[in-house]
Inverse folding.
């Protein structure tokens, strides 16, 4: 049995996860997840204390400081438990399993997640954050530890029996849901889509955008579904219609403090309904998905704001989240110097120190910087109130009030933002979680590839190519993906989301470059996922592979979180690859996944935006656009296509003779042509952007 490391460091000091290493100096005798911890629990007859979090989780930091760094609390943990730390981003399978139990036991979930397990891994008590003393309706963590230890030592048999019963009931419930879904007829896709739009409209905040009240999350899968539904079916006379809901939300988010007005990029969520004060952590997955939403809004209405926000967010990702070898890091922390948001917030005096009094007064009017501020860190009230920058008023209103031409003010604001950003760069930066997750890199790959196509920017395409090269070289081995790369080491067998997200990213890279090998690799990933993750009896896909580590549950990820569900993403990937390669059996993934969520989709469609996107793909008329010819000659035609939001159209650029079924017989003898086809009927080849524009007019 491995002893803790010398000099007060525990077993987490040698782990690759930045989150685990953050706890290496705790006096807690932490173990990483693995057999060693459970073997000790069995040998010593102790329960396991499982703590799950992630590096940019604010309340994870709070609980670590209050409890895991406290000698007396650590002594209670070490005496009564075998304590295991898990990075939820590194092991989403473990997180998913025990979050299911936590929600079943408490009716809610979140991070930090705290679960007490038998030595066999079955849970018997669960919660999230526990304070050091009783408060906020929660027991103090030391008192909880003592109570659970007494219960375990006085009646272990009853505790283990309760854990076994809970595990059995949860497993049976999952099996029943899967069996019911598998035997059901295919859902009515049109009705499901219409119902989902109506439900989202009823939850829509017409003032501030987004859905429901505080805290408010961007919800990219639902917003993307609404855009797809608008493109296929229009707004149907609704007020608000799907397009209006998305555009209003994106504008409000771009005005609010959830958006970083100096450095670009979005924070994870807003604590209020106005998108004003965020939890300041920035996640790769949010920003990658939001780039694509802003690009799609730009395609639909041509509003410069949307292109600007997309470019600024891409610049942030390139500048601060891109590994020199081409992978993207996972996240940036909310805290710096132990204070939430300190890096991002301002006082009027700080602005004046950068710009001088006169310019500061005008910038403060634009970005709503006031002496009263809008943010107070409850853990550090001595710092006083400060301001999260926002743009609550149109620039022309500020210009009119100050007697300045709008164009002049716009130019001055751009210069001030640059000076403010440079001054901010001198501050202590938030922590960086530098692990590279394959799944989230798939989202970033899709964002940069599509941005390269829509904005016609070769730099974005090249970043996407480098990312694909990095993942293939570092995280693709022997026909299998790895989930994470940290410190140059590829670890942990890939999960369903790794194959699905990265496959979808490769489809976008093919569309942006015409490099068919990217599409072939996507097909290879899909086939590998079908073989290793698909449920051959009841349909759909499990989160972990058939030959992976055995946990107490093997689940099918069906609900969207901040990212698409693994099953929703696989359904979309199956659709696209089926159309590109004429493999109709691959498209069956859409029906299988829709059947799994048929009943839940009717009750709470907002949890299934990715599945609804897959249904939109099947509801749309079958359309393809093939652009054939050498890459430089194709560019004008591809630019004409990229001007339009065509979310259900198969776009196939390639040189001649590439072997893709969609391109068979479409050679142009060294020239270039676009073939627009609908329901197996094609227009005459278009050889100029003007001809192509005429053929695309009215299509969506």
């Amino acid at each position: 049995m491995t002893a803790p490391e010398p000099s007060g460091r525990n077993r987490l000091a040698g782990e690759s996860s930045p989150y685990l290493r953050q706890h290496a100096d705790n006096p807690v005798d932490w173990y990483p997840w693995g057999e060693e911890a459970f073997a000790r629990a069995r040998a010593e007859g102790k329960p396991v204390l499982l703590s799950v979090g992630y590096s940019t989780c604010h309340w994870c930091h709070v609980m670590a400081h209050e409890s895991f760094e406290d000698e007396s609390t650590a002594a209670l943990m070490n005496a009564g438990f075998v304590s295991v730390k898990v990075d939820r981003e590194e092991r989403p399978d473990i997180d998913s399993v025990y979050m299911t139990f936590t929600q079943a036991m408490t009716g809610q979930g979140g991070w930090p997640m705290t679960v007490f397990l038998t030595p066999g891994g079955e849970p018997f008590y669960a919660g999230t954050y526990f304070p050091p003393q009783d408060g906020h309706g929660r027991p103090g963590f030391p008192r909880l530890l003592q109570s659970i230890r007494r219960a375990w030592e006085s009646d272990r048999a009853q505790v283990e029996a309760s854990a076994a019963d809970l595990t059995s009931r949860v497993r049976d419930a999952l099996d029943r849901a899967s069996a019911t879904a598998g035997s059901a007829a295919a859902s009515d896709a049109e009705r499901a889509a219409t119902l989902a739009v109506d439900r989202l409209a009823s939850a829509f905040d017409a003032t501030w955008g987004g859905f429901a009240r505080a805290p408010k999350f961007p919800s990219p899968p639902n917003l993307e579904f609404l855009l797809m539904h608008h493109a296929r079916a229009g707004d149907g006379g609704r007020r608000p219609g799907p397009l209006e809901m998305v555009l209003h939300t994106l504008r409000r988010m771009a005005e609010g403090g959830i958006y970083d007005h100096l450095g670009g990029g979005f924070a994870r969520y807003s604590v209020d309904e106005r998108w004003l004060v965020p939890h300041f952590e920035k996640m790769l997955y949010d920003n990658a998905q939001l780039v694509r939403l802003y690009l799609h809004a730009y395609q639909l209405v041509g509003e410069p704001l949307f292109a600007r926000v997309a470019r600024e967010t891409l610049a942030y990702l390139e500048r601060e989240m891109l590994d020199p070898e081409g992978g993207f890091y996972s996240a940036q922390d909310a805290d710096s110097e132990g204070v939430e948001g300190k890096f991002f917030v301002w006082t009027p005096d700080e602005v004046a120190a950068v710009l001088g009094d006169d310019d500061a007064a005008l910038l403060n009017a634009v970005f709503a910087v006031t002496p009263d501020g809008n943010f107070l860190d409850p853990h550090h009230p001595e710092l006083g109130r400060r301001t999260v920058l926002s743009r609550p008023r149109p620039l022309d209103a500020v210009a009119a009030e100050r007697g300045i031409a709008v164009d002049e003010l716009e130019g001055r604001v751009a210069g001030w933002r640059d000076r403010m950003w440079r001054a901010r760069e001198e501050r202590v930066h938030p922590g960086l979680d530098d692990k590279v997750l394959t799944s989230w890199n798939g989202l970033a790959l899709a964002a940069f590839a599509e941005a390269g196509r829509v904005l016609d920017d070769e730099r974005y395409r090249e970043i996407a190519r480098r990312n694909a090269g990095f993942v293939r070289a570092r995280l693709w081995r022997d026909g299998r993906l790895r989930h994470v790369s940290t410190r140059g080491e590829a670890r942990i067998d890939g999960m369903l989301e790794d194959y699905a997200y990265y496959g979808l990213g490769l489809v976008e890279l093919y569309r942006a470059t015409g490099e068919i090998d990217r599409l072939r690799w996507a097909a290879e990933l899909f086939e590998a996922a079908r073989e290793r993750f698909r449920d051959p009896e009841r349909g759909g896909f499990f989160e972990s592979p058939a030959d992976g580590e055995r946990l107490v549950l093997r689940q099918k990820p069906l609900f969207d979180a901040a990212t698409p569900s693994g099953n929703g993403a696989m359904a979309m990937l199956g659709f696209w690859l089926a159309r590109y390669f004429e493999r109709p059996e691959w498209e069956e993934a859409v029906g299988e996944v829709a059947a799994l969520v048929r009943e839940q989709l009717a009750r709470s469609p907002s949890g299934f935006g990715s599945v609804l996107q897959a249904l939109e793909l099947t509801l749309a008329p079958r359309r393809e656009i093939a652009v054939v010819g050498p890459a430089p000659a194709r560019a004008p035609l591809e630019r004409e296509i990229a001007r339009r939001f065509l979310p259900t159209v198969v776009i196939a650029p390639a040189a001649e003779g590439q072997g893709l079924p969609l391109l068979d017989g479409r050679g142009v003898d060294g020239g270039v042509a676009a073939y627009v086809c609908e329901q197996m009927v094609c227009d005459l080849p278009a050889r100029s952007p003007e001809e192509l524009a005429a053929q695309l007019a009215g299509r969506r």
Observations:
- Confidence is low (pLDDT under 50) at residues 1-7, 182-187.
- The first strand starts at residue 31 and ends at 32.
- The chain has four domains: 11-177, 189-337+433-619, 344-426, 623-696.
